[in-house]
Amino acid sequence: MHSISAALENLQAALSADFPDSPGVRVVDVAFPLNDAFDPLSWLCSQRCWPQFYWQQRNGDDEIAALGAVKSFLSLADASHFLQTPALPDDLRICGMNAFNPQQGALFLPRLEWRRNAGNAELRLVLWSDRSLREDALQAREFFASLKEGKLLPPLQVTLQAERHHPDHPHWIQLVSEAIATIASGALDKVVLARATDLVFTDALNAGAIMAASRRLNLRCYHFYQAFDAGHAFLGSSPERLWRRRGKLLRTEALAGTVASHPDDAQAQKLADWLMKDDKNQRENMLVVEDICQRLQTAVQTLEVLPPQVVTLRKVQHLRRCIWTELADADDERCLHLLQPTAAVAGLPRTPARAWIEQHEPFTREWYAGSAGYLSRQQSEFCVALRSAKIDGKTLRLYAGAGIVSGSDPEQEWQEIDNKAAGLRTLLFE
């Protein structure tokens, strides 16, 4: 890992400058040659300071590892307002997560940010203070002194003690039946019900090792990891984009409708063909498309909905329709308000569906079905926080959900959430 050592030395040298005893911002970038076996996730998880944030775009081109908070934000709205400060660079990024309730967040301006786009990478040091830049530079020197040498993440070795579903199978059947009856009454068109599964192990879990295993096997997914401290983290490998903004150009999508995948390509293709023709799944996907288009129409002039396609993952396959448009204003706060939660994770109409979920689900979603990513004045990108897990010491809480519409079958929906949860669960027990 010679490249990280050289880059850190260059940044430390920059800290020897004389900084003013007044408010301000300084950003120092050093080029990062990709000529050794440096793994940003392993290096990040070797550190003993927090927060830690890792994110990789689903096509693998964009990757971020961020460490330490210069400034923290409890909502994307607060982060977005901060980025309007005139002196800040257009490409200054704030990283983190938004909860299922989009008014809550855990985002931060990183002290140190490693970023890669395709074959180019750099390491960035950020200094910022609303009082004294000299004071912040002193804190940055202390931060550098605390950094550790990167170590390889250990293999996953776990022993399960207990497992419990929330809701359990009988309660799930009852919940889905109640949801179908509510839809039949006309009060809802769709509601997305989720299950949380608590897996309790004999020893504390290594969240970074779980993230590394998922990144290795769950291809064509966004990978996201945020560690709040040594024992608490949230991570996942999600196939779904919430939005990507480049300037005013916006891309989002409707990912709804699911069938199992299969290791045999011919069998997987048969299942994919069935998914493309199935009325229930096509209807579920179009409900999401219509909702997204309706929500965006106040912020854009035209919308382009691309033809449906099947996204094949390790354990499941999904219907996806991409939606492209141009915003009137590059406003990430408004994007979050319009798009999260989508009908694919909450239901329709959105407000009564969220109320139904809050009243009936036997757990609080917290970060599950929220979003993870980054924002800057220049661009932003967030994935939906699906296929995810919360780490709390020895306990791993797995999440999975299913869209309930007219014609849904409770047993089939239970099997669907089993298939979705398997993307992370099988990492621990295969």
From TrEMBL:
<dbReference type="InterPro" id="IPR034681">
    <property type="entry name" value="MenF"/>
</dbReference>
<dbReference type="InterPro" id="IPR015890">
    <property type="entry name" value="Chorismate_C"/>
</dbReference>
<dbReference type="GO" id="GO:0000287">
    <property type="term" value="F:magnesium ion binding"/>
</dbReference>
<dbReference type="GO" id="GO:0009234">
    <property type="term" value="P:menaquinone biosynthetic process"/>
</dbReference>
<feature type="binding site">
    <location>
        <position position="416"/>
    </location>
    <ligand>
        <name>Mg(2+)</name>
    </ligand>
</feature>
<comment type="function">
    <text>Catalyzes the conversion of chorismate to isochorismate.</text>
</comment>
<comment type="pathway">
    <text>Quinol/quinone metabolism; menaquinone biosynthesis.</text>
</comment>
<keyword id="KW-0413">Isomerase</keyword>
<dbReference type="Pfam" id="PF00425">
    <property type="entry name" value="Chorismate_bind"/>
</dbReference>
<feature type="active site" description="Proton acceptor">
    <location>
        <position position="190"/>
    </location>
</feature>
<dbReference type="InterPro" id="IPR005801">
    <property type="entry name" value="ADC_synthase"/>
</dbReference>
<protein>
    <recommendedName>
        <fullName>Isochorismate synthase MenF</fullName>
        <ecNumber>5.4.4.2</ecNumber>
    </recommendedName>
</protein>
<keyword id="KW-0474">Menaquinone biosynthesis</keyword>
<keyword id="KW-0460">Magnesium</keyword>
<comment type="pathway">
    <text>Quinol/quinone metabolism; 1,4-dihydroxy-2-naphthoate biosynthesis; 1,4-dihydroxy-2-naphthoate from chorismate: step 1/7.</text>
</comment>
<dbReference type="GO" id="GO:0008909">
    <property type="term" value="F:isochorismate synthase activity"/>
</dbReference>
<feature type="domain" description="Chorismate-utilising enzyme C-terminal">
    <location>
        <begin position="170"/>
        <end position="420"/>
    </location>
</feature>
<dbReference type="InterPro" id="IPR004561">
    <property type="entry name" value="IsoChor_synthase"/>
</dbReference>
<feature type="binding site">
    <location>
        <position position="284"/>
    </location>
    <ligand>
        <name>Mg(2+)</name>
    </ligand>
</feature>
<keyword id="KW-0479">Metal-binding</keyword>
<feature type="active site" description="Proton donor">
    <location>
        <position position="240"/>
    </location>
</feature>
<dbReference type="InterPro" id="IPR044250">
    <property type="entry name" value="MenF-like"/>
</dbReference>
<comment type="similarity">
    <text>Belongs to the isochorismate synthase family.</text>
</comment>
